[in-house]
User: Fold these one by one.
Assistant:
Number 1:
Amino acid sequence: MGSILVSIVEGNPHLRSLLGWHLQQAGYTVKQSAGIQQGRNLFYQYQPILVILDSDLPDGDGLELCRWLHEQKTPLILMLSARNTEGDIVAGLKAGADDYLTKPFGMQEFLARVEALIRRMRANCAPLYLDYHDLKIDLVQRRIQVRGEFIELTPQEFSLLYVLAQAEGTALSRSELLRRAWPDAIDNPRTIDTHVLSLRKKIESNPRQPNLIQTVRNVGYCLNPNLIEESTPEIIKSSSLPEDSKNLSQVSMN
């Protein structure tokens, strides 16, 4: 069973490294970025379960990225901020943050907040593993099984499949798929056709008569709605936080 994937978007390299180290010690898989654009790229590439997001980033306002992540249906967002007024906290929560932690904070509290968010998500039955019979998608380890065999996908192919799965059988246009699944703006919607063809060759028993990824005439593509209706999402539990990974020292960097 893989660990929960967490992304840290923090401009301060020392704090970013410190948070990453403690999360890894607690059993999480961690990806780090220093700003908004890199944070978006990491989201597209890895689809983290939790994003740790600073409100003040070197290339822009973290609230902007928070709103964007919320629109992408990021499961969990924990905002860190030196802004500590009631208005600041309300603004962060309204932007889409699931929790708001003001600086300075203790590492023990930080790890407890992370664990509480993961626990809340499990209680709300958010799927981390999708089982569509022939197709099984592990959203934590970012890998799939087709008819019992593990299939290697490129990061972009996985992102495309993930977005189709998120749509739960609803057809998405090529332009919508480009917007949701690609890290950079692309003008050519036929890029979607190329990647769908590549995916079908890897996951369909007969790519010429696809069953998993279906073409919807004059619209775009969808995951077979019949698979969605019959599926049962499963919950992958995160590792519990070991006591010796917790640090009582205060983190005061902005």
Number 2:
Amino acid sequence: MNILVANLGSTSFKYRLFRFDGSTELLLAKGGYERVTDYGSTIDDCLASLRAAGHVRDASDLHGVGFKTVQGGEVTGCLPADERVEQALLGTADLAPAHNPPYAAGIRQFRAKLPGVPLVALFETAFYQWVPAYANRYAVPDSWFAAGVRRYGFHGASHKFIAERSAELLGRNDVAAIVQRLYQDGPKPVTGSPLRVISCHLGGSSSVTGIRNGVAIGTSMGLSPQSGLPQNNRVGDLDSAAIPFIQKKLNLTTAEVERQLTKESGLLGLSGVSNDLREIREAALAGNARAQTAIDLLIHSIRHWVGAFWLELGGCDALVFTAGIGENSAWIREAVCAGLSDLGLVLDSAVNNAAPIETNLATAASRTRVLIIPTNEELVVARETRRLITASHG
């Protein structure tokens, strides 16, 4: 079975083609386009390149197309990418303006270009369908909640991958099996001790998720991807009173406030240097105080959420770092893990600096393991697309 995964941005199109043969998962091809103005012609070019490379002969060799859709409000999970999904994406476009309209347009174009090929949407919010009721609420009037103001959570494909792979690495195949079938069967009880994992997806946008027995109990992101930790140029968490206050203080329109919060805030706004953590650290090491503050705030925010989920879970069997920053920045991992020996986590600095993938970075005496697990969101989308299509065909 050949599954194409389409990752759509406001002016970008990236794809990966996976082939599934029994238990074998093979990445056949990947590529991308920038400065996209017409998804239709870009899709044509993508399919032509796959044919030229001999991966597919025609549309009949594509058995499904999967989309890592972001925010659909009450529409979530892994489901056919039909007109209902399109409307959900457009209906919540204000919460994910860089993602939702492109996905709606792309899905529409794929449907026209590949009639008869199943299209599947895996929402980033899907992994949080089973968090406790209190974990998806804000303390707002019930009418706001009914209108959709709640904590949805994002980076769901990444955290799901971490939930499954960490369970395998920790020898908990019972939990891994639950994660594999989570979107089809829902959570299942586990015999024996619970598996408690805290997943830190740290990259251009970042989030921390608490996971018990393969199921999310909560996450740092909320209503939109603009929340939680400070992002590369997005604000993260902010007191709601700041918006009317700064509008009056600086005579700003609502549109300008939104632009500054989503384009000029986060690590960029804090440091005044860049939205790239590598450049910010260079500046901090050179004595730039604003850059150092940006780093300190990011680490504080990560530790805040790690601590919150550590307490909620009643302990932590594995603290996992993933995504670009989490996988490649030993100094961030060391700062996050500093001073946690009383909680049972003791990082081995030498091993951490060597950064072996999927190997315990903690000392032998540490009760909590520390792992680097490279995430694979596209593979998760492909797997779930395959499962849904297979299930629909009996």
